[in-house]
Amino acid sequence: MNKLIACLVVMLISVVAAVADTEHVEERVKDAGTVLKEILDIPDNIPQDLLDKAECVIILPSVKKAAFGVGASYGRGVMICRGGEHYQGKWGAPALYALEGASIGFQLGGQATDFVLLVMNPKGAESLLHSKVKLGADASAAAGPKGRTAEGATDIVMTAEILSYSRNKGLFAGVSLEGSTLRSDGSANEKLYGKRLTAKEIIREGKVGVPASARELVALLDAKSPVNKSAPKSLR
User: What is the pTM of this model?
Assistant: First the structure.
């Protein structure tokens, strides 16, 4: 009898822990929506024409410098893309992603930093959907320009596959994340959706619907950038 009770207690603890972990992942998705809304409300924010040409957006709330190494850091957030074969549909369900890299730590200054990355072409998106990507090596990356439009941006910025921005202590700026890596967070995706799924299955194959925790984020992007304005040839 005592063994049975002990087994039941262990099972109950496991269930409670799993539910708490799932709620933690859901909070991360909600935080991503909050961060993006706050950044898009900044007057000198991400240029609208760049947002309108992005196939995907990656939001990483509160990336922190880790204690295990000088400059090392780790952050988790979401990647969300436009639907359809050529990224011309509405924004779809998000996949959870992780950002890692030594270079981030020196820029954070020990403070939590929010990051927003724009994925500017299908090549960059497909790279992120299939494997771990090192920014600046596997995918070209640049600090994103700010302001109402991207006029005056350099050729490097305009041809980059990924543009990155940061917000730290209320300051918003383009920031270089070269040398850092992005990868799909498989365990977090499983906790959010209740089954094993690849980022490609979530984002491109539509095997799951938009979870409740991501509805505000999806609605925000549908309102702020409902149409992909990239040149049609660049999407094929």
Answer: 0.84
